[in-house]
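FAQ: What does a ligand-bound record look like?

Like this one, built around manganese (II) ion:
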Amino acid sequence: MQFEFWTKGLADLAVDCVAVGVHDDGELSAEARALDVRGREKLARLVKRGDFTGKAGETWLIDFEGIRAERVLLVGMGPKVELSRKAWRRAVGASISAATRTRITSLALALPRPAAKALTDERLGRAVAELTGHMLYRVNDLKSGKKPRPHALARVVVVGQAKASQAVQKGFAQGSALAEGAALMRNLANLPGNVCTPSYLAKTAQDLAKTYKSLRVKVLGLPEIKREKMGCFLAVTQGSEEPPRFLVIEHRHPRAKGAPTVLVGKGITFDTGGISLKDPPTMDEMKFDMSGAACVIGTMKAVAELNLPLNVVGLVAACENMPDGRAIKPGDIVTSSAGLTVEILNTDAEGRLILCDALHYARRFKPDVVVDMATLTGAIVVALGVHHTGVFANDDALAREIVDCGLVVDDRAWHMPLTEEYGEQLKSNFADMANVAGRDGGSITAAAFLARFTKDLTWAHLDIAGTAYQGGAAKGSTGRPSAMLLEFLLRRAAR
Ligand code: BES
Ligand code: MN
Ligand code: ZN
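The answer part, i.e. the structure of the complex:
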């Protein structure tokens, strides 16, 4: 996809279609009025008749004469007063989506925009490219029937003021990288467990290293994982025929100063629950239990694509959680690589087991900050629903930074508490700690388990069980929290 910024008159713009906004009181936007002067007030007549009401997200494609573009797409912007970022994003998404249902190859977006304090020029460019990628994404399904007609859209032109040009162009590059990273995440997460195995994740990372010079990938197999004494990770994988993989993906930049940012992803390629077997109805969704890993891999691609002046290390612990004659049993006690012993009271609380060994591995990079992401608990979905990612951290400033990143890119997160009391609930009679602490505050006790392994690190944990994928009719990966994470890394690179 090609992105361009246009700062001159709309009438001379050589595109198939120009998208302009209409407010829901039937008032044409300034851009629409400018066009209308050239088109004998067709738009004004149309709106006056009440044919198009300007309801947020509604679109209508019409023929238009008097300008170079042959078509105009009317886009509903909702209420006129203080256009929100949400309404703007919806209008951009609707414009792209409408264009893909036609033979339009080039589309200009001449829409009203939110105030600069709500959306900077750079983030505007980023959001347009991100939304375009998001709207054009198609699930790599395995349906054998006729494939739907591919869309024709190849060029998106944003119309704006000359002074914004540089920042918007920069945003386009960021947004294109983000869209590609998020698409990779979604592809990986949407694949079934019999295709997207730990080895498949490893192969994907190794392929990235062939494309991007800044990336170095190391893959640990079973012998190396044993050598690292990752007893908790080994405990989870021992019930599976599929070999585990531990991925180390490093992005190095010659101009990057300071300790690396380490990202850690939960890569359970299928979570049956193990001997503490899950209920059947939605068990298929546990193929998404590697969403954290997929987000790390997708984000490393975006970081490499942008060649960010920042050292970033991505760590992924990948295996299956299966019931088997050799599987771990409730009550089993294992020793983590950090030396702490863990009584596994519930084999379905496996995410924290593989993460504790991955977090311990992160120490060797002497990281500036460690952020893990995991579809860790059903309890976070009970607490926050599907709208906010849960943020837990042993550093309030870091949690606030992450929440702010999510806010400005509309990939929201909520700061959850993580005080000592929750950790105390993990007491075991037989080991240093148990892997579960009952139903109450389940997402917090899970985070408290991880906190035991990150004491002297600056660390945050993102519970993405509610946000990384959707269930129901539109079942599939959402690509979240790729946008929030990239904003976080961009800010660090700019320091
Ligand atoms: N992968 C699940 C968490 C999950 C649940 C993600 C629903 C997405 C949707 C995790 O491994 C798990 O099973 N957690 C248990 C923890 C419990 C046994 C303490 C849970 O949430 O039920
Ligand atoms: Mn589980
Ligand atoms: Zn799980």
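Follow-up question: can I read anything off the structure? Yes, for example: The mean pLDDT is 97.
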